[in-house]
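Reviewers of the previous submission asked for a worked example of the structure-prediction workflow described in the proposal, so we include one complete record here. The input consisted solely of the amino acid sequence. No template or homolog information was supplied to the procedure at any stage.
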Amino acid sequence: MGELSETTEPHDAPQDPMAAARRNARPVLRQRFYTHADVASGPEGYVVRLDDKPVYTPARRLLAAPTLPLARALAAEWEAQREQIDPAKMPLTRLANSIIDGVADAPAPVKAEIQKYLGADLLFYRAESPQALRERQARLWDSILHWAKSKLGADFKTGEGVVHIMQPAPALQAASDAIPEDDAWRLGALHSATTLTGSALIALALMRGELSVDDAWRAAHVDEDWNIEQWGRDEIALERRAYRLAEMQAAATMLQHLS
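From that input alone, the workflow returned the following C-alpha coordinates.
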Protein backbone atom coordinates (compact mmCIF):
# COMPACT_ATOMS: atom_id res chain seq x y z
CA MET A 1 0.00 0.00 0.00
CA GLY A 2 1.24 3.46 -0.83
CA GLU A 3 1.63 6.21 1.73
CA LEU A 4 -1.18 8.63 2.35
CA SER A 5 -0.66 12.24 1.38
CA GLU A 6 -2.24 15.39 2.73
CA THR A 7 -3.70 18.18 0.66
CA THR A 8 -1.09 20.88 0.21
CA GLU A 9 -1.67 24.62 0.30
CA PRO A 10 -0.75 26.93 -2.61
CA HIS A 11 2.81 28.17 -2.41
CA ASP A 12 1.66 31.76 -2.15
CA ALA A 13 -0.79 31.11 0.73
CA PRO A 14 0.09 32.57 4.13
CA GLN A 15 1.95 29.96 6.17
CA ASP A 16 1.08 29.28 9.79
CA PRO A 17 4.33 27.94 11.28
CA MET A 18 2.54 26.19 14.17
CA ALA A 19 0.08 24.50 11.80
CA ALA A 20 2.94 23.47 9.52
CA ALA A 21 4.80 21.97 12.46
CA ARG A 22 1.72 20.00 13.52
CA ARG A 23 1.26 18.69 9.97
CA ASN A 24 4.89 17.61 9.77
CA ALA A 25 4.66 15.89 13.17
CA ARG A 26 1.58 13.86 12.30
CA PRO A 27 2.41 10.32 11.17
CA VAL A 28 1.05 9.14 7.84
CA LEU A 29 -1.23 6.19 8.60
CA ARG A 30 -1.85 3.35 6.21
CA GLN A 31 -5.37 2.42 5.26
CA ARG A 32 -6.52 -0.94 6.57
CA PHE A 33 -6.01 -3.34 3.64
CA TYR A 34 -7.20 -6.63 5.18
CA THR A 35 -10.48 -8.02 6.40
CA HIS A 36 -9.36 -10.37 9.13
CA ALA A 37 -6.35 -11.08 11.38
CA ASP A 38 -5.62 -14.58 12.64
CA VAL A 39 -2.83 -16.94 13.71
CA ALA A 40 -1.19 -19.95 12.09
CA SER A 41 1.30 -22.39 13.58
CA GLY A 42 4.61 -22.83 11.79
CA PRO A 43 8.30 -23.69 12.31
CA GLU A 44 8.96 -20.14 13.53
CA GLY A 45 6.19 -20.26 16.13
CA TYR A 46 2.68 -18.83 15.97
CA VAL A 47 2.58 -16.44 13.04
CA VAL A 48 0.21 -13.48 12.87
CA ARG A 49 -1.57 -13.36 9.50
CA LEU A 50 -3.71 -10.83 7.70
CA ASP A 51 -6.07 -12.53 5.25
CA ASP A 52 -3.83 -15.62 5.25
CA LYS A 53 -0.69 -13.58 4.56
CA PRO A 54 2.01 -13.37 7.27
CA VAL A 55 2.86 -10.10 8.98
CA TYR A 56 6.46 -8.94 8.92
CA THR A 57 8.41 -6.75 11.32
CA PRO A 58 10.18 -3.56 10.15
CA ALA A 59 13.32 -5.69 9.62
CA ARG A 60 11.27 -8.06 7.41
CA ARG A 61 11.15 -10.91 9.89
CA LEU A 62 8.01 -12.87 10.60
CA LEU A 63 5.82 -11.56 13.37
CA ALA A 64 5.73 -14.92 15.15
CA ALA A 65 5.21 -15.44 18.87
CA PRO A 66 6.45 -18.38 20.96
CA THR A 67 3.02 -19.08 22.50
CA LEU A 68 -0.47 -19.23 21.05
CA PRO A 69 -2.06 -16.88 23.62
CA LEU A 70 0.53 -14.20 22.84
CA ALA A 71 0.04 -14.61 19.09
CA ARG A 72 -3.71 -14.29 19.53
CA ALA A 73 -3.23 -11.11 21.56
CA LEU A 74 -1.06 -9.70 18.76
CA ALA A 75 -3.65 -10.64 16.15
CA ALA A 76 -6.33 -8.97 18.26
CA GLU A 77 -4.46 -5.66 18.00
CA TRP A 78 -4.50 -5.91 14.22
CA GLU A 79 -8.14 -6.95 14.23
CA ALA A 80 -9.02 -3.91 16.37
CA GLN A 81 -7.71 -1.42 13.81
CA ARG A 82 -10.42 0.48 11.97
CA GLU A 83 -10.17 2.34 8.66
CA GLN A 84 -6.51 3.14 9.31
CA ILE A 85 -3.67 1.24 10.95
CA ASP A 86 -2.39 3.30 13.87
CA PRO A 87 0.86 1.92 15.38
CA ALA A 88 0.35 4.17 18.41
CA LYS A 89 -2.61 1.98 19.33
CA MET A 90 -0.65 -1.26 18.93
CA PRO A 91 1.80 -1.33 21.87
CA LEU A 92 2.00 -5.12 21.99
CA THR A 93 2.95 -5.33 18.32
CA ARG A 94 5.55 -2.58 18.74
CA LEU A 95 7.09 -4.47 21.65
CA ALA A 96 7.08 -7.76 19.73
CA ASN A 97 8.76 -6.06 16.76
CA SER A 98 11.51 -4.66 18.97
CA ILE A 99 12.13 -8.08 20.51
CA ILE A 100 12.23 -9.93 17.20
CA ASP A 101 14.35 -7.32 15.41
CA GLY A 102 16.59 -6.27 18.29
CA VAL A 103 16.61 -8.27 21.49
CA ALA A 104 16.74 -11.73 19.90
CA ASP A 105 20.08 -11.03 18.22
CA ALA A 106 21.69 -9.12 21.10
CA PRO A 107 20.30 -10.06 24.53
CA ALA A 108 23.46 -9.22 26.49
CA PRO A 109 23.24 -5.39 26.07
CA VAL A 110 19.56 -5.52 27.05
CA LYS A 111 20.37 -7.41 30.24
CA ALA A 112 23.20 -4.96 30.95
CA GLU A 113 20.76 -2.06 30.68
CA ILE A 114 18.45 -3.67 33.24
CA GLN A 115 21.44 -4.25 35.52
CA LYS A 116 22.19 -0.51 35.41
CA TYR A 117 18.74 0.16 36.84
CA LEU A 118 19.44 -2.35 39.61
CA GLY A 119 22.45 -0.32 40.67
CA ALA A 120 20.32 2.79 41.31
CA ASP A 121 16.80 1.47 41.58
CA LEU A 122 13.90 3.82 42.25
CA LEU A 123 12.99 1.91 45.43
CA PHE A 124 16.30 2.69 47.15
CA TYR A 125 15.84 6.46 47.36
CA ARG A 126 13.29 7.78 49.85
CA ALA A 127 12.04 11.31 50.33
CA GLU A 128 13.38 13.25 53.28
CA SER A 129 9.96 14.88 53.71
CA PRO A 130 7.00 15.24 53.99
CA GLN A 131 6.21 12.38 56.34
CA ALA A 132 3.03 11.41 54.48
CA LEU A 133 5.01 10.85 51.27
CA ARG A 134 7.64 8.85 53.14
CA GLU A 135 4.92 6.63 54.57
CA ARG A 136 3.39 6.10 51.14
CA GLN A 137 6.75 5.14 49.65
CA ALA A 138 7.33 2.69 52.48
CA ARG A 139 3.87 1.18 52.09
CA LEU A 140 4.29 0.55 48.36
CA TRP A 141 8.02 -0.15 48.15
CA ASP A 142 9.05 -2.03 51.27
CA SER A 143 7.06 -5.13 50.36
CA ILE A 144 8.89 -5.32 47.01
CA LEU A 145 12.27 -5.05 48.72
CA HIS A 146 11.19 -7.73 51.20
CA TRP A 147 10.20 -9.97 48.28
CA ALA A 148 13.58 -9.38 46.62
CA LYS A 149 15.33 -10.37 49.84
CA SER A 150 13.22 -13.43 50.61
CA LYS A 151 12.72 -14.80 47.08
CA LEU A 152 15.76 -13.61 45.15
CA GLY A 153 18.26 -13.46 48.02
CA ALA A 154 18.94 -9.80 47.21
CA ASP A 155 19.22 -7.63 50.34
CA PHE A 156 19.40 -4.00 49.23
CA LYS A 157 20.03 -0.81 51.19
CA THR A 158 17.80 2.28 51.19
CA GLY A 159 18.50 5.89 52.05
CA GLU A 160 17.10 9.41 51.98
CA GLY A 161 17.64 11.93 49.23
CA VAL A 162 19.37 11.41 45.89
CA VAL A 163 22.95 10.68 46.95
CA HIS A 164 24.08 7.44 45.32
CA ILE A 165 23.85 4.37 47.55
CA MET A 166 26.49 1.71 46.91
CA GLN A 167 24.64 -1.60 46.95
CA PRO A 168 26.18 -4.86 48.19
CA ALA A 169 27.66 -6.90 45.36
CA PRO A 170 25.88 -10.12 46.46
CA ALA A 171 22.51 -8.36 46.29
CA LEU A 172 23.22 -7.03 42.80
CA GLN A 173 24.37 -10.47 41.65
CA ALA A 174 21.33 -12.23 43.11
CA ALA A 175 18.93 -9.85 41.39
CA SER A 176 20.90 -10.02 38.14
CA ASP A 177 20.60 -13.79 38.18
CA ALA A 178 16.80 -13.38 37.96
CA ILE A 179 17.07 -11.56 34.62
CA PRO A 180 16.19 -14.10 31.87
CA GLU A 181 18.99 -13.58 29.37
CA ASP A 182 18.23 -16.86 27.58
CA ASP A 183 14.62 -15.88 26.81
CA ALA A 184 14.49 -12.90 24.44
CA TRP A 185 10.74 -12.42 24.81
CA ARG A 186 10.69 -12.28 28.60
CA LEU A 187 13.90 -10.25 28.58
CA GLY A 188 12.42 -7.71 26.16
CA ALA A 189 9.19 -7.39 28.16
CA LEU A 190 11.19 -7.07 31.39
CA HIS A 191 13.34 -4.33 29.85
CA SER A 192 10.25 -2.44 28.71
CA ALA A 193 8.70 -2.63 32.18
CA THR A 194 12.00 -1.55 33.74
CA THR A 195 12.39 1.57 31.63
CA LEU A 196 8.72 2.50 32.04
CA THR A 197 8.80 2.23 35.83
CA GLY A 198 12.39 3.28 36.51
CA SER A 199 12.79 0.16 38.62
CA ALA A 200 14.22 -3.21 37.71
CA LEU A 201 12.88 -4.59 40.98
CA ILE A 202 9.31 -3.56 40.19
CA ALA A 203 9.71 -5.12 36.75
CA LEU A 204 11.12 -8.36 38.18
CA ALA A 205 8.27 -8.55 40.70
CA LEU A 206 5.80 -8.07 37.85
CA MET A 207 7.50 -10.78 35.78
CA ARG A 208 7.45 -13.22 38.72
CA GLY A 209 3.76 -12.55 39.43
CA GLU A 210 4.41 -10.80 42.74
CA LEU A 211 2.79 -7.58 41.49
CA SER A 212 -0.19 -6.92 39.25
CA VAL A 213 0.31 -4.37 36.50
CA ASP A 214 -1.84 -1.89 38.44
CA ASP A 215 0.19 -2.34 41.62
CA ALA A 216 3.45 -2.08 39.68
CA TRP A 217 2.30 1.12 38.00
CA ARG A 218 1.14 2.58 41.32
CA ALA A 219 4.47 1.78 42.96
CA ALA A 220 6.37 3.39 40.10
CA HIS A 221 4.42 6.64 40.33
CA VAL A 222 4.34 7.35 44.06
CA ASP A 223 6.16 10.66 43.73
CA GLU A 224 4.32 11.71 40.57
CA ASP A 225 0.92 10.94 42.08
CA TRP A 226 1.86 12.86 45.22
CA ASN A 227 2.79 15.93 43.16
CA ILE A 228 -0.48 15.72 41.23
CA GLU A 229 -2.38 15.67 44.50
CA GLN A 230 -0.50 18.73 45.77
CA TRP A 231 -0.26 20.85 42.62
CA GLY A 232 -2.95 19.63 40.24
CA ARG A 233 -3.07 17.84 36.92
CA ASP A 234 -0.99 18.61 33.83
CA GLU A 235 -3.04 17.41 30.88
CA ILE A 236 -0.07 17.07 28.52
CA ALA A 237 1.84 15.06 31.12
CA LEU A 238 -1.21 12.87 31.69
CA GLU A 239 -1.44 12.14 27.96
CA ARG A 240 2.18 11.01 27.95
CA ARG A 241 1.51 8.93 31.04
CA ALA A 242 -1.50 7.25 29.39
CA TYR A 243 0.69 6.32 26.42
CA ARG A 244 3.32 4.85 28.74
CA LEU A 245 0.66 2.98 30.70
CA ALA A 246 -0.50 1.29 27.48
CA GLU A 247 3.10 0.19 26.89
CA MET A 248 3.31 -1.10 30.46
CA GLN A 249 0.10 -3.06 30.02
CA ALA A 250 1.52 -4.53 26.81
CA ALA A 251 4.65 -5.69 28.66
CA ALA A 252 2.50 -7.22 31.39
CA THR A 253 0.27 -8.94 28.83
CA MET A 254 3.32 -10.37 27.11
CA LEU A 255 4.76 -11.70 30.37
CA GLN A 256 1.41 -13.25 31.26
CA HIS A 257 1.04 -14.96 27.89
CA LEU A 258 4.60 -16.29 28.03
CA SER A 259 3.99 -18.10 31.30
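The longest strand covers residues 37-42. We consider this example representative of the routine output the project will generate in years two and three.
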